[in-house]
Amino acid sequence: MTFDLGVLSGYWPELVQGLGGTIWLCAAAAAMSGVLGVLLTIGQRRGAPWLVALIRGYTALTLGLPLLVLLYVTFFVLPDFGVLLPAPLVGTVTLAIYYGPYVAEVIQAAVAAVPAGTVEAGVAIGMSPVKIARRIIAPQALPLLLPTLTGLLIGLVKDSALLSVISVHEFMFAAKAVVSDTYAPLEVYFVVAMVYWAATSVIHLLTRHWERRLGRARRVTLPR
């Protein structure tokens, strides 16, 4: 068996287009899961008992399911109930639904780790809840959030490859199409592996740099 990347000479545009689809899908899913995680956190901390119970049930159900099963349910089962959505939208929303509870759990853990004394000091000097969240809780919680959120983002990027099973035109889907045309799985999947490794490595390095900057520069200072 020979290894020759030359067999891909006419297929690079197709692979690049698939990579672009993956980037957009991951960006949208990450943003949606972040918003969902914040809403779930607020609901559990400030919601009515019935809402808290509903969120906990949703969280337990989602965390106990493999992503692939959730994809099959949203793509193949929902149409039986008259819910017909485009495959890219189904894939993006499913990733957000799956990762949202993880984000919420991370946020809650980071907020719980913020010293209660700093929050009480903010209340004592008359700061509003919004100011307390922005000026006291966020600067202390963000450095605690970053390492775990980085891992979740990397997991989301890698799991996006599963969207090819529901015919979402992303990087892995494009790679499979190229393999079917070239009969060169070694070369194609080598490129795929290197691209995913490079993407996750860049995410890791950027967030580590941000984490170090936050660790040096961000300190909570209560206004006078």
UniProtKB/TrEMBL annotation:
Sequence intervals crossing the membrane: 22-42, 54-75, 81-99, 144-168, 188-206
Q: Name one Pfam family in it.
A: BPD_transp_1
Q: What is its main location?
A: membrane
Q: How does it sit in the membrane?
A: Multi-pass membrane protein
Record GO cellular component, one term: ATP-binding cassette (ABC) transporter complex
- Any GO molecular function: transmembrane transporter activity
Alphabetically ordered keywords of this record:
Amino-acid transport, Cell membrane, Membrane, Transmembrane, Transmembrane helix, Transport
Q: Where in the cell is it found?
A: Cell inner membrane; Cell membrane
Q: Where is the ABC transmembrane type-1 domain?
A: 19-207
Q: Name one GO biological process term.
A: amino acid transport
Q: Which family does it belong to?
A: Belongs to the binding-protein-dependent transport system permease family. HisMQ subfamily.
* PANTHER family recorded: L-CYSTINE TRANSPORT SYSTEM PERMEASE PROTEIN TCYL, MEMBRANE COMPONENT OF AMINO ACID ABC TRANSPORTER
- Name-wise, this protein is L-cystine transport system permease protein YecS
